[in-house]
Fold this sequence. Notes:
heterodimer, A: alpha+beta, four-stranded antiparallel beta sheet, B: alpha/beta, 3 domains, five-stranded mixed beta sheet, 42% helix, elongated
Amino acid sequence: MESMKRGHLAAEVACILILILLAQASAASVYERAIIPQGDSTYRVSLQFPEGTISGITETISSGMTCKEISLPPEQYRIEGTTLFLAIIEEREVSYLVTGKPGMTAEITGTYQDMITGEKGNLPGARISSSGSVEIIDAAVNNSLPGNDARSQHAPLEPVLFVVALCATGLLYSLRRRSR
Amino acid sequence: MKLLFMVLAAAVCLMIVLPASAGLPGDASGNDHLEKQELVSMILSALKDSTTLQDARDAAYVYSNWNGSPKKIIDSSGKERVIWRPFHRIVVMNSETLETMRSIGYDTSTVVGVDKYTLKATAFFPEFKNTPGIGSIWAPDYEKIVSLQPDAVFVYAEISRSSCDEIEENLAKTSPGVTVLRFDCYLPESYPGEIGILGDLLDCQEGGREFLEFYTSNIDTVTSRVAAVPENERIKVYFETWNDYKTCAAGSGYDQKIRMAGGSNIFGNEAGEYPELDPEAVLASSPEAVIKLVGSMKYTFGGYNGGEEEIFRQTHDALVSRKGWKSLPAVRDNRTYLIHTDILGGPHFFVGVQYMARWFYPDRFSDLDPVCVHAEYLTRFQGLPASIVEDEIFVYPRLRR
């Protein structure tokens, strides 16, 4: 009997944790990033957007890298040093090429400002190692990348959700103890 | 003199505070159409200068929702209104329009100012209890309206037309950036059209369609059956407002509602919308049903703001005990009723019409359940609990279900 009750409690805690994870997932960027090596220290970076997106994108690449072949009409982007500004008007995908020096490590970070919902936050980032391997960093982790001061609007909610979940778990536990 | 000074002061404030917002945001070419390239420029600018972000967002909204063109509607005053950007701050000076906004699912968080009657209706409009008050259409607080920096101000079209004309004229002179929109939302003949226009204006087309379907089906239930009653067999009704011996005649909303419910308004052909009667004329008219409106003046009780059944009983007793009334067919046959303005005067008059239809033709409408319709309206369209319908009194005698 006792083990059954413990089992129920464990299931409740698991459910709450799943809810927290779901909430965190929903807070993550809805935009996606992919990077495909093209050889000669060149990579094709692509960003995917949901249908009907109208958004402003700011991409920052490591110094020493250059970007070119942006798949948007010239009037729809601006390049200023290592920063690329993009205006997304219902495009589903945008890509560009970045080229670095052989053997260099690099990072690509980005932020978005959704013009319809008003939401803003980080895009998934990317790290390119000296060996040329590519790692995509999810938007939540990307918040802590140096030089990236953008914060998702959802971010302040996450610790609150966690505290609420902890309190709910504690309350459930104490109620169960009292009912015994 | 004081009023003139206040209007002038308000004008100065308006010119300082309110930007002239005519013209589409980002429409650099000035051709009243937002091209893709113009939106692109707005977005790229906003990425570097956050002070332009709101304009860029408005431009994105216009591009995405209005195909890049200003929204044009004809309101209930018959005037074409041009909307250049989505509303962020609105003042609603008529609670009927506010109620309809809620019915069509509009996000009323943009409402920054309401009239004093909305503020008083705390049970029906609980979400606005802390919203700044702007007086009323008869005594508008221009200074307050100005300080709220609205994009749009909603006033009546037909009711108190001169007061609303004055408000519109004053705002047009002092702040052309404020759009004045005029709707009544209480007249049966114009309400269905107003639901559609408000849905379009506020980009709540789907909510508007859903509510219109609900409204129309409830009205049709009554009117389709009433149509089968020959004109000369319709029940003779004496309707009295909250002013004793003041009735309603052709042109008034109440007259339309009585006729919708299948009643023959005895004094419908009197001059004026709300004629005062000689008590002898009422006795001579031999009404078969009497409807007394409560909810204002000396009959301020009941409805959403609550009230004891005892007050209704006393009022009803006093009504049927009037001198000479014992011999009236309506009194003799126990067909005298009190109805609250909350369900007959405003946008949910269709609930009141259903009550009247049941009273007028109990056999034809025995299956009609206005209590249930009222509860559905509150829960589905007003975000209020159904329990209000059972807890509060809207008609007397209460309907036996």
